[in-house]
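Example A, followed by Example B.
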Amino acid sequence: MNRSATPASLPSAAEIEIARESSRDLAVALTSSAESQQFDFRDEKGEMHSVRLPTTVLKLLVEVLSEIGQGNAVSIIPIHAEVTTQEAADLLNVSRPYFVQLLEKGDIPFRRVNTHRRVRYQDVIDYKKRIDEARLAALDELTAQAQELGMGY
C-alpha cells in the first residue's frame, strides 16, 4: 500500500493503557459542535505548542485510540490508495485467487502495473458495501418467506 500507516506489531500493555486514557480524555472534546479543536502540549524540552485539529480528524483519532486501547493493531489507508490483490482479498476476507476472479469478471475495476494488478481501496470498499446490501436484502426476503409460511422464526 502506498502511504499507509501499518503497525509493526500489536500494542504493548503500556500503549494500551495510554490509548484507553487518551481516548476517554479526547472524547470529551467531541461533545462540542465546533468544526475544530485546539490542543496544547509540551514537547520533550518542556516547551508549549498548540495544534488545531478538525473535529472529523479528532473523531478518527478517538476511534484509533479506542481500538488500540482494546489491544488491536490499527492500519490507516487513504481512500484513494491502491492495494495489491492480496491486501484487497484480506479486506474482503476471501482468497487471493477468488479475488482475482472477481477482477477478471469485471466486478471490481483494476489496473495493471506490468504483470501486477492494482485496485483502488475505495473500489474494494464499494464492492463490499454492494455485496453486504445484497446479502441483507436476501436475508430480509428469506425472513419474509419464513413468516408467510409460519416457520416460527
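Example B, a separate protein, is given below in the same form.
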Amino acid sequence: MAAAKGVCLHHISRETSDLKRLAKFYKEILGFEELESPKFGDFGVVWLRLPPVFGLHLIERNPETKLPEGPWSSTAAIADPKNLPRGHHICFAVSNYDSFVQTLKEEGIEFFEKTQPDGKTKQVFFFDPDGNGLEVGSWAAPQI
C-alpha cells in the first residue's frame, strides 16, 4: 500500500541556461501558456501550463554546475532521437498528429517516428532546445 494518498502529477521541471529560448519552444511547438512566475531572487524561473492542469517549470541553470546541458554536449547515444523510445522523455498526446509532425519538419526539428504494431498509434521522438527528450503520440487525450 502506498504511503501517499490522492497523488497526482503537479509539474515537471527542466533546468536551462536560456529561459526565453526554452519557454518559446514549449509555447510555439506544444502550445503551453506562460503563467505569472514567482521571484526566487538569485535565479530566474518561467512557469508554463498546458491546459487544463499540466505544469512545466523552467529554472535557470546554476552557472557553477559542471554537468552537461543535455545530449548536445555529450557523445552519449541518447543524442540520437532513435534512442529516446527507451530513454528519458516526457510524453504528450495530440489530436492533430500528422500536422504536428509537419510543423516539426517545417521548424527543422530532427525527429524519429514510429508506428506501433496495431498500425494506428503513431509516435514521434525529438529533443527540446536543451536536449530534453520529448515524445508526442496520436493517442486520445486522457479524460478528466
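On Example B: The beta strands are 11-16, 33-34, 45-50, 54-60, 90-93, 111-115, 122-127, 133-137.
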